[in-house]
Protein 1
Amino acid sequence: MCFKQIIALVLTVACLCSTCFVTTVSAETISTHSLVSSVSPLYDIADSVYSDLYIIGNKAECKSQVFGVNASKITVEQTLQKYSGWFWIWNNVDGASWSKTVSSSSAQLFNTKSVLTSGKYRVKTVCILTDRNGKTETVTVYSDEKKV
């Protein structure tokens, strides 16, 4: 065996051995539902935020809900997004962004978008909650992904 073959063999064995020690890790992703059970200690004003998407034929029904504790004003921004397929990029769908501001401790936003092309969609919901003292919190959640 020549020197180059020995080096190639050693490198091959090292590569194969290194795959035996690979550890897979993952993190839980909060997609649609409530902040109550999983991340509520991080928020003083936001109690729960929901973002849901329903696909019926080629029509998307987007629903966002937010509930606050001692909130005096809530702004909800809702955007339908489509997966581009490249580098995990989600693009906003033209004509599918809405917002609403209420002087309340809860808010809902329900909108529809028709004539969707085939692909994967989700709803992005951004909520800005303000309490009586002027403190604000911003919470962003995403719906589950749905295909057309």
Protein 2
Amino acid sequence: MDNSHDVGLTTTQSTYIEKAQSKGQLYIQQPYELYSEGNQRTWQRLYANLLPKWKKYANAKFLTGVENLMLKPDSIPKLSEINQFLSPLSGFEAKAVSGYVPAYLFFECLRNRSFPTTITIRGGESLDYLPEPDIFHDIAGHVPMHTDRKFSDVLVRFGEVAQLAALRARAMTQSESEGIAMVENNIKAMARFFWFTIEFGLMKQGNDLKVYGSGLLSSSGEIKNAIESPHVQRHDLQLEWVVNQHFEIDRYQPLLFVVDSFDHLFQLVDDLQKHLQDGKLDNVAPGEPLVNEKDLGSFLNAEIDP
């Protein structure tokens, strides 16, 4: 029996995505008519679960972003409508992709104010676990923050740091093995910084701590855990620590870092660039995340535009 209609655009099960990937199509359209009733119910349940927790734990800029995007609790957003609200505020746009985006291409999109956006949605049987990013994580977790100009400028600066890393990879004079090891360390350091800020960051807001990281904002269990659990370590962000700190993706995070403000975060990305230029990211501590061949190749073979 053909159950493709019931599957719709469910993560890891979508025929539409499989076909796009088989054709090598990374940037795609959002075929809204393919979302099943089950997909829409998943969005509704996720939104209902997260809304009261956003109001309690989320950074004020995120809550403003949710309002500015006119996110609907009862239906998956159309990216075209999201962009109508988003682009005038920060110049960013959500750009539909068929799945995994190699690291350099991802950061290059950010540099050009474009956010690679997954269009599938997780299965309804595991609402709080993401085997990989989905549209709720990307649109409801990430994009509200992109409506804020200061935060969006942080993402652009991060893309510029990645471009610099690719230029250093092109210009490396070491032996091939030493050069590749240097690039792997650069990627690992940037991935760790991105993880502990953009994905799982906490920020001071008056006398309170609030969540601004998308991985926390899109998980109804982890957003509360991040702020209230006595088992979570929360430390002021120190760049040298973060770039040497491994992380695991399949568990609640036991260690989180706090920034003072979006201006502070922007300054930290400037510091990250200086560390890169000074060679301080060329030999960071081993461990997760591992750098796969696609990510490495995306930096070594980057087509670099000015």
Protein 3
Amino acid sequence: MTNPGRIASLVFLAGVFVMEGYDIAAMGLAVPRLGDALGLEPTSFGWVFTSLLVGIGIGGALLAPFGDRLGRRTMIVLGCAATGAFTLATTTATSITAFLIWRGLTGIALGAALPNVSALSAELAPDRLRATIMAVVSAGIPLGIGVAGFISPEVVAMAGWHGLFYVPGLLALALAIILFFMLEGGLPKGALQGGAKPAAAPQIELFRMPWVIPFAVFAAMLAVNAMNLYLLNSWIPTVLPQAGFTQDVADRISGIVQFAGIGIGIAASFGVDRWRPAPSLIAMFGAMAACFFAVSVTAPDAGLWTALLCVGVGGASAGGMVLPGLCVYLFAPRLLSTAIGLGVMVARLGAFAGPLIGSAILSADAGPQAFFFVAAVPAAVCAVIAILVPMALKFRARAEGTATPSQNSGTA
């Protein structure tokens, strides 16, 4: 593929993440409006949010690994097409059960596509900037969430709550068509090293030495951060009005903080590529925990809370950008889609608790400050887990005789 072709492919692969971010935000933005439209209580949507996460986990574990055997393009195109169809079908829902079914199917489709988008972006990137390029591409998630929150008042004014799902659904179908013609087919780079055929069940390798140690560290951080991410993105549009903000202001804050996450994610990913992974991650997650704690002990103030949430919520979104890039250094290329896909499953099995925790806090009338105090805990846990990253990197280095990222960048 020519350099212009690589750049164009990366741009449209980033578009898949923009679509995912918008799609993730759509349900959270719709919930406060469904009480008047359909007579459904916001606190009854905990399992609807969770169904999307479980679906992404199922798709990531069972379908995404086919990208290591059949090629990334096939899974990306099929995943985008199915996502578009199921997201548009969500507009027909009139009950909690219907929302749960359509969001679950949407999650399965996203889970099939997204790990392959991450893996393919790493293969198209220069070796010395793989984590950074992956972060830039996956910055589409907070960008999509941010755009959704920022324009939601106008979208709802034009098309009602249905419009929140029309946008990502139509975008997903358009991307499926564009990427079908743009991407090259074939097996992933490194899939046939030494003339070997791709493993029939590469997931099993991740539970054997030496890969089980890196996978445990990667999946644990991904799971805890994903729990926090979905706790925040699912309920912030509902929680902030309880602190005295108008619904439109709450929606816009939920969008603004995502744009901050893009900068945080790119900066932290550059640290993973060119400095040291562990200190970069510890600094990011530690700052998140401190900011959430600060929100929990201060009176509601639009300016102060927005600034603090830019680091807190933005950092959670940044974690979703940075951690797949770390995966490039933890695993061999032949296991990349599988590692990301199975990591997505483990993350979603942990993250499904996020919306339910938020629902419990709202049902208990604990208040916005308690909500953000709870969000500080998983951020602090991620900072602790990040201390184990150097150990995980050494397991791959010993297995393949390669240098760790810090050795490659010339630091001690």
